[in-house]
Amino acid sequence: MNNKFSVPEAELKKQKEYTELVKTVLNSRFSDKKPKAFVHTYGCQGNVSDGERLQGMLAEMGYEFTDSPENADFVLYNTCAIREHAEDRVFGNAGALKPIKKLNPDMIIGLCGCMTQQKNIAERFRKSFPFVDIVFGTHVSYKLPEFVYRVLCTGKRVIDITDSEGNIVEGLPTKRDGSFKAWVPVMYGCNNFCSYCIVPYVRGRERSRDFDTVVNEVKGLIESGYKEITLLGQNVNSYNKDLPENKRFPALLQAISEIDGDFIVRFMTSHPRDCTKELLDVMASSKKIAKHLHLPFQSGNDRVLKEMNRHYDREKYLTLIDYAYSVMPDLSITSDVIVGFPGETYEEFKDTLSLIEKVRYTSLFTFIFSPRPGTKAYDMPDKVSREEKGKWFKELTDLQESIAGKRTASMKGKTYRVLVEGKAKNEGVLSGRTEGNVIIEFHGDENLIGKFVNVEVTEPKTWVVYGEYRG
Questions:
Q1: Apex CA 362: angle with CA 357 and CA 365, to 5°?
Q2: Predicted TM-score (pTM) of this structure
């Protein structure tokens, strides 16, 4: 694919050459064993997908992988900038590497991702974490082989947070974390500039992958035995927004659902601004598309939504929900909610509670507002204390817990098709997810992992249901 976001072939060829150079250096330094890499990803599914490509590049360079930084010759933290708590974890975990590197001075430590794309964060790592060898942002991650080579051969630090509108890099090697569930990005970046969100500043503008490239990637995964494909984008509904309808997201979803094979396809995230009836109709028409819609509303109050720069109001959101339920009565809906946005009053917060009661979500990802430097909301006056916001937060979570409990109670006695994901904590118990993204646990043999099975719900709890294997 060639568009203004494509990285030139010559640059990708150069990185391939660096990969071979790194492999040669490592072979000479680790003649009796293979060097080990530890990669840890924070944050969203998009970050997880990026992490799989970083692992793929490291594998091609000659690294094998370990689950412990203490045993690693290369440590890479792939970071998240959505909330302050996520950043604090990275600072703490990066600091904990200092004594480990003292014991192994040749260890290479790298930090990358959304957090490091911010100039102030990168500068903090440069000044306060001198033992970190590589710091790079989201727009140059494909240059990892070059960065590793430069550190191996010069011993000097590499810091590259080159800013850009973003890019698209096809053909990078991928070392996936699983053998039956796969993440597939369909687009990158965001154009919405919600006033609280740092993503457009660290991920760049929206750019879509080629339609046929995505379809062929998914087809290859299905042929390799993958059972669940999740299509990723900060706003998948903006996919190919400026192209004809037969190249937009509903058409992409339809084309993927028509691929031969026994699999289920999911997608996230949908922005209500661009969610259409066409998308919902495509979901309703295919047995291969999960009847689960993640549609973040963030606030149930129109004034707050306007301050958030969300480009929709409560009425539009509820109209979408009503239509979705009309074509998919058993649809499972999840969402994101921000509690205590700057300037929000308790009366406005109660509009969020009433919306939750109306929609009856399966589950919610709930957050107390976290100010992000560089966003418009960071400078907004905020008179409500953290303690008061905590009380609102508990009121919301108590309400959602009640709703979730009633929803799971209605599942009792029903049989669901479940993709078995792995072992649960208890001996002999397996864990999987229903099409509606509800966790279900049941007794079964480990050879069922990675397969679709039927499970009857016998004991529903609030967030997990328990059942019996029915074949």
A1: 90
A2: 0.95
